[in-house]
Design goal:
The complex is a heterodimer of chains A (264) and B (312). In chain A, 45% of the residues are buried. Helix content of chain A is 75%, strand content 0%. Chain A has 10 helices and no strands. Chain B is mostly helical and 312 residues long. Chain B has helices at 2-28, 34-43, 49-58, 65-77, 91-126, 131-145, 148-162, 178-204, 209-214, 219-256, 262-271, 275-303. The chains are: A mainly alpha (264), B mainly alpha (312).
Chain lengths: 264, 312
C-alpha cells in the first residue's frame, strides 16, 4: 500500500508543483536556439520553436494529469449514478440503463472519442466531453453488479421496509460497499484517460497549441524525427512512466481488496 | 439455444439502432454551418450566400431533425450510404477500398499478437513466480502502458530511419504492412500474455486435477485435455476485446504510417466536415464490432456450456 501512496503523491505533486519547477516559460519562443540537443541550459533540449522541452513537459503535467483526473472522476460519478439507478430501479429501468451502457460499450472508445472531439471542434472542452462520454460504462457495470447483490441483503431490505428513501439507501448503504471496487476501476480509467488525451492531442483533436500537452508535443516532435529523435522520446517516456505507475498502483489496490474480501 | 440467440440478436439490434441515432444526433447538433463547410470544401474560395443556400437545400439540411434522420436511415437500411458531401462520390465503394487496407492490418496485428503471446504465456507459466514468469509479466505491464502511436513512432525511428530496413510511409508494397502490423501485434501481445497467463494458472488450479494425477494420468495428457480447453475460453473473449484495440490502433497507426484505410478515411472526413462519410464509417465500425462480439458470445457458449442459458 505504501507504493500506492508514493505514486499518488508523485503524480499530485508533479501536476501541482511541476509548473513551479520549470526553468523556463513553456511558450517562450527562441528561434536562435531551435531543435537543440540536451545541454546545460536546456536539460532536455529545445523544440522546433526553440521552446524548452523540460519546461513544456512539466507544465504539460498539469494538462495531461489534471484533465485525466477530471475526466476519470466525472466518469466515476456518472457511471456510479447509472449503475446504482439500474440496480435500484427495477427491471424496466435496469434493462434500459444497461442497453444504453451496452450501446456506448459497443463501440471502440477511442474512435468514438475521436469522432466526438473532432466533430465538436478541437478544444479542451470537447476533449473532456468526448472522453467522459466514452468513459463511464465500466463504473456503471461494476456499480450495478455489486448493487444488485446488495439489494437482497438484510440491512438493505430492512432499511427499505422502514421507509428509508432510495437516495439515502444509495448513499449510506451502497456507496460504502461500492467505493473500494470503484476505486480500482478508477485507477484503470485514469490511466486510460491519460492515454486518450495524448492520443487525441497527437491526432490534433485535443488540447490546442501553444498549450503544452504531452500528446501535442509528440505531434510537433514527429516531423523532426530525423534531425532530433530525442525530442520525440521525452513526452512518450513521461506518458509511459505515469501510466505504468498508475496501473501498478491499481494492481496493488486490487490485490489488497481481494485479500480483504478473503478475510471477511 | 434458439431463445438465447434471439435474445442476443435483439440486444445487438438495439445497440446498432442506438449507435445510429446517437451518431446522427451528434452530427446534427455539431457547431458550425455544414452547408458552408461543404461549399468551402468544394470551391475552396469565397462562396456567395445563394450557393450556400442551394447546397443546403440539396443536402437536405433545411429539413427538421426527424425528417432528416428518416431521409438518412431509410436508404441506410437498404445498404445505401449516400454520397460524400465534399466530393460527391458514392461513399460505399470508397469505404470498401479503405477497409481492404485496414482488415489485413488488423488481422496481421492479431496474428503477430497471438504468435508472440501464446509461447510467452506457456513459457512463463512453466514455473510460476520464476524469473521468466516475472519477466513476462513485467513486459506485459510495460506493453499496456505504451501508447500505440508512440510505439509506432519508435519502430519507425529504429527500423526505418536508423537502420533503414523497412519502409514506413504509405502502402505501395506488401512490405509496407510490416511496421504497422508489428506495432499493433506488440500491443495485442501485451494484454493477451497477461490474460493467457492467468487463464493457464487458473486452469491448473482446478480442483479435480490432483485426482487425475494420482490416478496416473500423465502431466502432458492433463495439460492437453483439461488445462488447454479451460484456458482457451478467456482467449476467445479477449479476442473480442482486442478487436476494439485493433480498430483503434489501426485508426491511429494509419495516420502515422500514412496508410490509406478506415482510419485515414475517418480522420479526413472529420477534418473536411464530410458528415455523411463520418456517419458511414461509424456505422460500418459498429456493425463489424457488434457482429464479431455476437459471434464471440456464441462461440463462448459452445466452448463452455456452463455459461448461463438464461441470462441473455
Amino acid at each position: 500500500m505504501r507504493s500506492v501512496w508514493a505514486v499518488a503523491m508523485l503524480l499530485v505533486s508533479l501536476s501541482l508543483l511541476g509548473p513551479l519547477l520549470a526553468p523556463y516559460d513553456p511558450t517562450a519562443i527562441g528561434l536562435a536556439n531551435r531543435l537543440s540537443g540536451p545541454s546545460g541550459d536546456n536539460l532536455l533540449g529545445t523544440d522546433a520553436l526553440g521552446r524548452d522541452i523540460l519546461s513544456r513537459l512539466l507544465h504539460g503535467a498539469r494538462w495531461s494529469l489534471g484533465l485525466a483526473f477530471v475526466i476519470s472522476v466525472l466518469g466515476l460519478i456518472i457511471g456510479t449514478l447509472a449503475g446504482v439507478l439500474a440496480a435500484q430501479g427495477g427491471k424496466v429501468v435496469d434493462w434500459s440503463v444497461m442497453r444504453v451502457t451496452d450501446t456506448f460499450l459497443a463501440f471502440p472508445e477511442l474512435i468514438a472519442a475521436v469522432v466526438i472531439a473532432g466533430v465538436l471542434g478541437a478544444g479542451t472542452g470537447s476533449l473532456v466531453f468526448a472522453l467522459t462520454v466514452t468513459g463511464w460504462m465500466r463504473y456503471a457495470r461494476v456499480a450495478r453488479g455489486i448493487g444488485l447483490s446488495l439489494q437482497t441483503r438484510g440491512y438493505v431490505v430492512q432499511a427499505r421496509l422502514a421507509g428509508v428513501s432510495m437516495a439515502s439507501i444509495a448513499w449510506w448503504h451502497y456507496l460504502p460497499s461500492l467505493l473500494p471496487s470503484l476505486v480500482v476501476v478508477w485507477t484503470g480509467m485514469f490511466a486510460r484517460a491519460i492515454l486518450g488525451i495524448s492520443a487525441l492531442g497527437f491526432l490534433g483533436f485535443g488540447v490546442q497549441p501553444p498549450t503544452p500537452e504531452w500528446g501535442t508535443m509528440l505531434l510537433d516532435a514527429r516531423i523532426h524525427m530525423r534531425s532530433t529523435p530525442l525530442q520525440m522520446i521525452w513526452p512518450g517516456l513521461t506518458v509511459v512512466f505515469c501510466v505504468l505507475a498508475i496501473n501498478l498502483a491499481g494492481d496493488t489496490l486490487r490485490d489488497a481488496l481481494a485479500q480483504e474480501e478473503k478475510q471477511l | 439455444m434458439i431463445r438465447v440467440m434471439l435474445g442476443l440478436g435483439a440486444r445487438a439490434a438495439v445497440v446498432l439502432a442506438g449507435t445510429a441515432f446517437a451518431t446522427f444526433a451528434l452530427l446534427w447538433h455539431a457547431p458550425g454551418d455544414p452547408a458552408l463547410a461543404i461549399a468551402l470544401a468544394r470551391f475552396d474560395a469565397q462562396v456567395p450566400p445563394e450557393v450556400v443556400e442551394q447546397i443546403r437545400a440539396q443536402a437536405g439540411l433545411n429539413a427538421g431533425f426527424w425528417s432528416a434522420f428518416q431521409a438518412w436511415i431509410g436508404p441506410l437500411l437498404t445498404g445505401d450510404f449516400g454520397r460524400s458531401s465534399v466530393t460527391g462520390r458514392e461513399i460505399w465503394p470508397d469505404l470498401v477500398t479503405a477497409a481492404s487496407y485496414t482488415f489485413p492490418l488488423a488481422l496481421a496485428g492479431l496474428a503477430i499478437g497471438l504468435a508472440l503471446s501464446i509461447p510467452l504465456a506457456i513459457i512463463a507459466t512453466r514455473r510460476p513466480g520464476g524469473w521468466l514468469d516475472r519477466g513476462a509479466v513485467a513486459l506485459a505491464s510495460l506493453g499496456a502502458a505504451i501508447p500505440t502511436y508512440w510505439l509506432g513512432l519508435l519502430l519507425i525511428l529504429l527500423f526505418a530511419v536508423q537502420l533503414g530496413w523497412l519502409p514506413a510511409m504509405g502502402a505501395r508494397t506488401p512490405v509496407h504492412i510490416v511496421l504497422p502490423a508489428l506495432t499493433l501485434g506488440l500491443g495485442v501481445a501485451a494484454s493477451l500474455t497477461r490474460i493467457l497467463r492467468s487463464g493457464i494458472l487458473e486452469a491448473r488450479s482446478q480442483a479435480f486435477l490432483p485426482a487425475f494425477r494420482r490416478r496416473g494420468v500423465t502431466p502432458n495428457d492433463i495439460e492437453r485435455a483439461h488445462v488447454a480447453p479451460h484456458a482457451a475460453v478467456p482467449v476467445v473473449t479477449v479476442i473480442g476485446l482486442e478487436l476494439a484495440f485493433l480498430l483503434e490502433g489501426a485508426v491511429i497507426l494509419e495516420v502515422i504510417f500514412a496508410r490509406p484505410g478506415l482510419g485515414t478515411f475517418l480522420v479526413n472526413a472529420i477534418s473536411t466536415r464530410d458528415f455523411p462519410a463520418v456517419q458511414a464509417v461509424v456505422i460500418v465500425a459498429a456493425v463489424i464490432f457488434v457482429c464479431v462480439n455476437l459471434l464471440i458470445d456464441l462461440i463462448y457458449r459452445v466452448l463452455d456450456p456452463r455459461i448461463g442459458e438464461h441470462d441473455a
